[in-house]
Amino acid sequence: MLIQPFILRIIKYNSVPHKGDDNVAQLTHGGKLFLKKQNREKYNSWIIFPQCPKNDRWPNLNSDAWDKKFKNKITKPNKSLNLVI
Asked: What is the pLDDT of residues 34-62, one digit of tens each?
Protein backbone atom coordinates (compact mmCIF):
# COMPACT_ATOMS: atom_id res chain seq x y z
CA MET A 1 0.00 0.00 0.00
CA LEU A 2 1.43 3.36 -1.03
CA ILE A 3 0.91 6.31 1.25
CA GLN A 4 0.62 9.54 -0.67
CA PRO A 5 2.34 12.57 0.86
CA PHE A 6 -0.04 15.25 2.03
CA ILE A 7 0.35 18.56 0.22
CA LEU A 8 -1.39 21.52 1.78
CA ARG A 9 -2.94 23.91 -0.73
CA ILE A 10 -3.45 27.49 0.39
CA ILE A 11 -4.90 30.41 -1.50
CA LYS A 12 -4.18 33.74 0.19
CA TYR A 13 -6.49 36.46 -1.10
CA ASN A 14 -5.16 40.01 -0.89
CA SER A 15 -7.06 42.94 0.58
CA VAL A 16 -7.79 46.39 -0.88
CA PRO A 17 -4.33 47.97 -0.43
CA HIS A 18 -2.75 45.08 -2.34
CA LYS A 19 -4.89 45.25 -5.47
CA GLY A 20 -3.27 46.01 -8.80
CA ASP A 21 -1.37 44.42 -11.63
CA ASP A 22 2.24 44.54 -10.42
CA ASN A 23 2.25 40.92 -9.14
CA VAL A 24 4.16 42.14 -6.06
CA ALA A 25 1.80 43.96 -3.68
CA GLN A 26 -0.18 40.80 -2.82
CA LEU A 27 3.03 39.20 -1.51
CA THR A 28 3.36 41.76 1.31
CA HIS A 29 1.93 39.45 3.98
CA GLY A 30 3.39 35.95 3.83
CA GLY A 31 5.19 35.99 0.51
CA LYS A 32 8.72 36.21 1.95
CA LEU A 33 8.09 33.25 4.27
CA PHE A 34 8.19 30.80 1.37
CA LEU A 35 11.30 32.26 -0.27
CA LYS A 36 13.31 30.39 2.36
CA LYS A 37 14.21 26.86 1.30
CA GLN A 38 13.86 25.45 4.82
CA ASN A 39 10.25 26.70 5.04
CA ARG A 40 9.36 25.19 1.67
CA GLU A 41 10.81 21.86 2.81
CA LYS A 42 9.20 21.99 6.27
CA TYR A 43 5.76 23.03 5.00
CA ASN A 44 5.17 20.85 1.96
CA SER A 45 2.51 22.96 0.33
CA TRP A 46 1.37 24.96 -2.65
CA ILE A 47 0.74 28.60 -1.80
CA ILE A 48 -1.08 30.76 -4.32
CA PHE A 49 -1.06 34.56 -3.95
CA PRO A 50 -3.47 35.84 -6.62
CA GLN A 51 -3.79 39.60 -7.08
CA CYS A 52 -7.18 41.23 -7.54
CA PRO A 53 -7.27 44.00 -10.18
CA LYS A 54 -7.70 47.57 -8.87
CA ASN A 55 -11.12 47.93 -10.47
CA ASP A 56 -12.51 44.64 -9.09
CA ARG A 57 -13.09 42.76 -5.83
CA TRP A 58 -12.96 39.08 -4.88
CA PRO A 59 -16.56 38.53 -3.84
CA ASN A 60 -19.33 39.15 -6.31
CA LEU A 61 -21.72 40.64 -3.78
CA ASN A 62 -24.59 42.95 -4.44
CA SER A 63 -23.87 44.55 -1.07
CA ASP A 64 -20.89 45.02 1.19
CA ALA A 65 -19.47 47.55 3.62
CA TRP A 66 -18.36 49.80 0.75
CA ASP A 67 -21.51 49.61 -1.36
CA LYS A 68 -24.70 50.02 0.69
CA LYS A 69 -26.95 50.66 -2.32
CA PHE A 70 -27.41 46.99 -3.28
CA LYS A 71 -29.42 44.17 -1.72
CA ASN A 72 -27.30 41.68 0.27
CA LYS A 73 -27.37 38.74 -2.13
CA ILE A 74 -24.43 36.68 -3.38
CA THR A 75 -24.39 36.00 -7.10
CA LYS A 76 -22.06 33.88 -9.26
CA PRO A 77 -18.27 34.37 -8.89
CA ASN A 78 -16.93 37.44 -10.67
CA LYS A 79 -14.24 37.22 -13.36
CA SER A 80 -11.25 37.70 -11.03
CA LEU A 81 -12.35 35.09 -8.48
CA ASN A 82 -13.42 32.68 -11.19
CA LEU A 83 -9.88 32.77 -12.67
CA VAL A 84 -8.51 31.64 -9.30
CA ILE A 85 -11.02 28.90 -8.53
From this structure: 888 898 888 888 888 888 888 887 776 55
Asked if residues 80 and 53 have their Cβ atoms less than 8 Å apart, the reply is yes
Reported as a pLDDT band with limits 50, 70 and 90, residue 22 is: very high
In the chain, where the domains are located: 8-84
- What's at 15, amino acid-wise? S
Name the region of 73 (left: φ>0; alpha: ψ -120 to 50; beta: rest).
beta
**Alpha carbon distance 52, 50 (integer Å):** 7
Q: Give the C-alpha separation, 41 to 4, whole Å.
A: 16
DSSP 6: P
Residue at 39: amino acid letter:
N
